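tool=predict chain=A
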Amino acid sequence: MFQITRRSAKLFSTNCIALRKYADSSNVATLKGGENILYLSLQKKFPQAKEIKIKDISGGCGAIFEVFISTIEFKGMSMVKQHQLINEVLKDQIKSMHGIRIHTEIPAENNKSN
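tool=predict ok
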């Protein structure tokens, strides 16, 4: 069983200073290593994605990430299948993580006939 001591809590808080905003296409050039790798892997797998966001929710340590993808490529798939696809794409990166949160959506169609 893992036990948090004052020393381990201090080390964690020292290494994980501040929560960061979602990383997305508007700031992909400024992403840290882990976020950038995740973003580029997902962008390659889902080229039609309307939105891909990556957020380091471990406080900057790169141990836990939150992933959001909005793409028409998920149309007709269950949420489980969508998440399985993301897990498959990121399987090598997930091995070194403590956790990952995945959020997916199918974007609303903007082309409505009048």
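The chain is about 35% helix and 20% strand. Residues 28 and 36 are 7 Å apart (CA to CA).
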